Structure formats: C-alpha cells, structure tokens
Amino acid sequence: MSDQASHGAQLLTLTRAARLVGVSRGALQKKIKKGELETFEGMVKPEDLLHAYPDMQLEDNTALEHFTQIKDDAFIHRVRERMLPEPEVLAERLSGLSKELANTRAQVERYKTITDWLYDKFNEYEKSGGNEIRHIIGPLKLWLRHELEKQSPSDYLQSYTVKESFLRLMTAQVRLLPGQREFFVEGSDTILDAALRAGISLRYGCSNGNCGLCKARVVSGKTHLMRHTDYTFTESEKNQSYVLLCAHTAVTDIEIETSEIGGIQDIPKQEIATRVKKIEPLGDDLALLHLQTPRTKRLQFLAGQSVTLESSNGAEADYPVASCPCDDRNLQFHLLRQRDNRLAEYVFKKLKSGDIVSLVGPKGDFTLNEDSPRSLIFLAHGTGFAPIKSLIEHAMARDMAESMHLYWVAGENGHYLNNLCRSWSDALDNFQYTPLPAEKANTVSVLKQVIKDHPDIGEFDIYAAGSLEFLKVVETTLVAGSQFPAMRLRTCHVE
C-alpha cells in the first residue's frame, strides 16, 4: 500500500476541511499561502487544520447550521428543508463507514501485534547482547514504551473524527473531472440540483430525465437512481457507467467526468413561458417581479446576465436577473416604473399573480471571473444592485472569494433591500456592506472611499453596475486615476 493510500483516510480535501471548520475555501487558501496551513497534494491533515483554527469547536455543529440557514434564507429567500437522505442511501453509507471502522480496528490490532513482538525482541537482544548492544537497545525500548504510552488524541481531534464521520454519513462529496471542482450532495438532492445550488454550472436540458444532456460518467463511487427516466443509454454508455445527473444522487463520495459551462458561449438561447409568482413593491416606483419557470424547462444562465421579458400585450424590455443561478426556477427582476417603458407600466397597472410572461435569453457578459483568486469589490448605483445581487449570491454559493465588499449608492428608491445586505454582513465574516445615501455621495467621493478602505485595490476584481454616468466616472477614476488594471473592472449599464 502506498504512503498516500495509507494516509488517504486521514487527509481532507479543502472543500471538506472548510465545511468542517465553517470557513470558506478562500480563507483556507489564504492560510496556505501564508504558510499557516500545510497541504499534501491539495489536501490537509486534521491535526494541521485544528492547529490553524484552535478556537473552532468541532463538536458543536450549531454554529455551522445557523450560518448555513442564514445564508440560504438571505440569498434564496427561502429556508430549504434539509431532509435526510433516502433510506437506501443512508444504509449504503453506514455500511461503508462500518467497513472502514472494521478495517481500521483490524489495522490497529495488527500494529499492536507488531509493536508487542518488537518490544519482546528488544528484551531478548538486551539480555543476550553485550554492553554495546544494551546501549543501543535500552534507549530504543524507552522510546518505544514512551510512544505506546502517549495519551490518546485530543478531544478536539476526537471531535473531528466524530463530526467528519457524521458529515460523510449525511452528505457525499462530488469531484468533477477534469475541472477538479468539488461540492456536496445533501439530503435527497440529485447531483444536478446539488451542483446548481453550489453555484456550479453543468450542462442540462429538461432536468426531468428525458433529454440526456446532463449525462456524465461515474469514474469512482456509487450513485442511486432517484426517479424513473425515459432516456435510453447505449450499451457502450452503460458499460462506461454513465448516469443522468438530474435523476441520480451520490451514495458515496464520487468522481464524475462531465463538462461544465465555460462561459456565455456555452449557454443556448432559451424561450420560456414563465408564470408570475409574486409582485412585491420595493418602493413608490419600484417592484420585485418574481417569475417561476416550469419544472421541466428551467433557465440556464450565468450570474449577472439579462433576459428579455414580454407581456401578453406585446410590450417587452431587457432586465438583468436579480437572483442566483443556483435557483434557476425562481427568477427575480427589479422593475423601475418609467413612462417610456410599456412593459414596466403593464406590470404596475395590470399584471397579476398567475399571469404568463415570456422570457428570451440569457444575454450579456457581466459575469464573474470564477478562475480569479482575488477578493471582490461590488459598486452598485440605484437599481444597478439587481445584477450585483446575482453576482454576490453566486459568489456566496460558490464560496469562491476570500472577501467581498459591497458599496451601494442609493437611487430614488433608496437601499430598497437594505435588510438583505445587512443580513449578509451579519452572517458572513468575509462580507462587508457600505450603504451610501445619494444626497451625500457622488461617484468620485465613493471611489475615494473605496480606495481609502482598500489601499491595495490593485489586488481586487471590481464589478460595477448602474447608470451610464456612474459607470463613466468609475472607469475614468479607477483605471486612469488609480492605475487600476482595466481587465479587472467589469461594468453593466442599468437605469
């Protein structure tokens, strides 16, 4: 058995380690970069993890559950019921853990037999040998006795073992190949739903087991079919362990070979007849339009993108999606009432719950650079908060940024989702929120404050959304005034 294999069960991926101590992957990567946490081929030892986070109470899962619940409620606007896995899945995982425990106990007994035999041999050599042998064997015996009589692992390390085992029982970790992205499958989620909820964009179509676009090859681990499907695999695909991600869940930790959406060029144009779920006033002339897609035709899009909405009277307009791709059935839009906008007028005067609104899209390249290791700054002006909100929620779902800071300059309707932003700030240690009133702030002063707050601003990626005038000042002041790299600034025009 190789050294890596013998220690494999004792090493943690960064994703699992972050989950255990309740921090982001970015926070762990920062520790690694500073030399405060050692890695072994991208994995960490639990002892090193505990040393890096000595104040973490691993035996107490309440804080992590509270964090997860707040996070879900804040950016999805609903608390998802965290169900137990299917009985068959639980039984399989429990069986796997039981086998591991039996193997570990057998290995411990084997090591104990070897050390007892070694100690007896030391005694024989010490008694039969001369002074030179006794001088060598004596210290070896003392060292061996000292190592065998050492105290058992610390309470923290034992807590880690218990919690890590519980985590493996309740969730399965998925690794995508060749991209190496990782996420967890919780409860009775399908692999596709878990990936989307984690902010990972996989290819899919009907999400109902018919089209086959979400098929992937299982490289290692076990899956379980959750529902009937009509799609038929070829004999070759069956032999290569292909499954439909929309219909299977992960029983054990698995590796799957599939392609991710690499960018806007990989997303097809879609036409969907959505239904109005809710119209919620956000101000005197502002409303949140909540549309819901059919279960079998959800919208594939990247955070920050826009779509064209069309009402039954033929009025249409483009709007950025203000919600996270992790919930691709429930789409939110922030509609400002404008006299020259027929769609907005129709929404405020006639549209009601249950009505049909057609959707075409997505479009636009105001999307996150997910390969960037840098922290994020978001600049929003008025309803420019809509696409910024989508980006923030996606970054949260991906747990991708070491830190995020939102600056929101109020428009005519103020900070209409101020409590939401504050809930993010309260729930997340790596998120800061700075609301700026319109009457006391101009774009130049805002940017001066940003630069003052972040003197190392050149180390950030910046995303700005708002009026053309706002964006023009942002580009001029940042790129020309502070020598900020133009490639790290992305903008979106929203009136």
Task: Write structural notes for this entry.
The chain has five domains: 3-56, no CATH class; 87-157; 167-257, Ubiquitin-like (UB roll) (Roll); 268-363, Translation factors (Elongation Factor Tu (Ef-tu), domain 3, Beta Barrel), CATH 2.40.30; 375-493, Rossmann fold. Helices cover 38% and strands 23% of the residues. The chain has helices spanning 3-7, 14-21, 25-34, 46-52, 62-76, 87-128, 131-148, 155-170, 191-197, 235-239, 342-349, 385-398, 418-427, 443-453, 468-481, and strands spanning 12-13, 43-44, 171-177, 182-186, 215-220, 223-225, 242-244, 248-250, 254-257, 270-283, 286-292, 306-310, 316-320, 330-336, 356-363, 375-381, 404-409, 431-436, 460-466, 489-493. The chain has a six-stranded antiparallel β-sheet, covered by helices on one side. A five-stranded mixed β-sheet has the order 4-3-9-5-7. Strands 18-17-16-19-20 form a five-stranded parallel β-sheet, with helices on both faces. A hairpin with a 5-residue loop joins strand 12 and strand 13 (316-320). Helix 5 (62-76) runs antiparallel to helix 13 (418-427), helix 6 runs antiparallel to helix 7 (131-148) and helix 6 runs antiparallel to helix 8 (155-170). 34% of the residues are buried. The model is unreliable at 1-9, 58-67 and 73-82 (pLDDT under 50).
